[in-house]
Amino acid sequence: MDWGMKNRLSQVIQPDGHCFFLPIDHGYFQGPTRCLEKPGETIKPLLSFVDALFVTRGVLRAVVNPDNSKPIILRVSGATSMASGDLANEEITTSIEEIIRLNASAVGISVFIGSDYQRQTLLNLAHLVNDCEDYGIPVMAVTAVGKELEKRDARYLALSCRIAAELGARIVKTYWCEDFQKVVESCPVPVVMAGGPKCESEREVFEFVYDGMQKGAIGINLGRNVWQNAHPVAMARALQAIIHENATAKEAVEIFREVRAKCV
After folding, report:
1. Which is catalytic among the residues 173, 198, 250, 262?
2. What's the CA gap between 202 and 198, in Å, rounded?
3. Under a CB-based contact definition with an 8 Å cutoff, are residues 206 and 232 in contact?
4. Per-residue buried b or exposed e for 26-45, using 16+ beta carbons within 10 Å of the residue's own CB
5. Where do the domains of the chain lie?
6. Mutual angle of helices 202-214 and 249-263, in 10-degree steps
7. I want to staple 245 with a disulfide (CB 3.0 to 4.6 A). Which of 78, 181, 241, 251 is the partner?
């Protein structure tokens, strides 16, 4: 691995080997998502707790302060929406020149294993890796999204993650599941956990995050379960404690309550 790749990975993955990515890219297919109508205001109180932002180029330019910003993982796939027939029908939307111009620490792209657009999205990933490896920019593959989320079991997720790694992804983002260690153990590159739809309770989030970390994930890429929570700062601080301080789910609940009380 050359110096540039190592340096960029060290920006998004902390010295303890763990990471907390905050995705705010949902608008690229959902439009003005609840609590993300004004993304600049949403992220402002959360930035001190996270290690990197996962964001599109448009929102990056519009609302993220370039002075002393968090490292950027740039969303570079899209061209579909909730109003279209199939969210899997994605293409690469951002050139390598634009990625370099925006000084991204990494890029992220979705792949849809088992969908009608499997081949297309896997080729998107392969082409992106070809371009980004030339410039030492790590690619994060986002797996098991859209309708394929319904297949969220260890066998399917392991299949998706391994294919993404085989095509050159440096990091794979996927979902927690029962027997999650089977997913991690069969993937030769680091795995980060997605949050998916908002969970019913804070404890539910803390429990799956802690379990996934114990089973080999290096961190999380959680958005809605943070900024759609009634107390997003408390949520971010508690998750930071699990990721970087090895707090248990029970300890995270206590941290959440303490921070919530101070904020109120």
Report:
1. 173
2. 10
3. no
4. bbbbeeebebbeebeebbee
5. 3-204+212-223
6. 140
7. 241
215 is catalytic: no
Residue 147 pLDDT more than 70? no
Would you state the pLDDT for residue 150?
A: 65
* Integer Cα distance of 54 and 106 in angstroms: 9
What is the pTM assigned to this prediction? 0.96
Written out in words, the top-level CATH class of the domain with range 3-204+212-223 is alpha beta
Nearest to 242 by CA among 228, 229, 231, 256: 256
Q: What is the pLDDT of residue 149?
A: 61
Alpha-carbon distance of 192 to 101, in angstroms, equals 26
Task: Answer whether residue 264 shows pLDDT above 80.
Answer: no
* CA-closest candidate to residue 58, choices 33, 81, 28: 28
